Amino acid sequence: MRRCIAALITLASLPAAAWAGKKTPPSPPPLVAEHAHPTGAFTFRTPAGWTVRPLPERPDVIEAWNGPVGVRFVYQPAEVGLDSLHVNCMLERLAPPMDTEPQVKYEYDFVGGPVGDARALDSAFTVRYDAPIQGHVAWRQRTLTVVGMGQSLCLASYVPADLWKRSPEARAATDAVLASVTMRGRP
Q1: What pLDDT sits at residue 116?
Q2: What is 2-16+30-183's CATH topology?
Q3: In whole angstroms, what separates CA 140 from the centre of its chain?
Q4: Contacts within 8 Å (CB) and 24+ apart, 134-141
């Protein structure tokens, strides 16, 4: 299953036109630490220096952060409708809806298909918050939703929009963490 998620991450995040005539994208950083969801349903890896912890107000949600770059993991121990879950996953924001501009700017939306024994959808967009979060108002959010093997998983990555544009290293690190997810099937 891991290779299939990695393939989806690669296909959606590295379109050929994006690198045409440019330098080769940086290699992802070494993913030195492995983390497991408390249920054992999935694992993921992070580079050195990342902090992994439950979201304080939602202990069922795990977040991994390195400075202003983060990934949120929302697990459900049942298969949920893929389209409806993906819409809900895209609402996994860094602030409540009332603190967010209603319009988002889509980079791409609802890209996906079969991933091994599961199905996946992938969307990326820019969200603007009313007040700065970690010093940034505009954030690029990527949401990947995977449903199958008796479970559902939302992965949402967050990178300040200006950092996303100027830092191939931030893009490589975020995509590497997302691609490292290994689903083990429902415990």
Answers
A1: 77
A2: Protein Transport Mog1p; Chain A (3.40.1000)
A3: 11
A4: 134/67, 134/68, 134/160, 135/68, 135/160, 136/68, 136/160, 136/161, 136/162, 136/163, 138/162, 139/94, 140/107, 140/164, 141/90, 141/93
In the chain, which ranges are continuous DSSP H helix?
2-13, 16-19, 82-90, 161-166, 168-179
Answer for the pair 104, 167: CB distance below 8 angstroms, yes or no: no
Classify residue 27 as exposed, middle or buried by CB count within 10 Å of its CB (0-12, 13-18, 19+): exposed
How far lies 161's CA from each of 157, 171, 173, 178, in Å? 12, 11, 15, 18
Per-residue pLDDT of the chain (187 residues; tens, 9 = 90+): 444 455 444 434 433 334 445 667 788 899 999 999 988 899 999 999 999 999 988 887 999 999 999 999 999 999 999 999 999 999 999 999 899 998 999 998 888 887 778 899 999 999 999 999 999 999 999 999 999 989 999 999 999 999 999 999 999 999 999 999 988 865 5
The tally of CA atoms less than 13 A away on the side-chain side of residue 86 is: 20
Instruction: Give the predicted TM-score (pTM) of the model.
Output: 0.87
| Pairing verdict, β 136-148 and 151-160 | antiparallel
Q: How big is the chain, counted in residues? A: 187
Report domain extents, the chain.
2-16+30-183
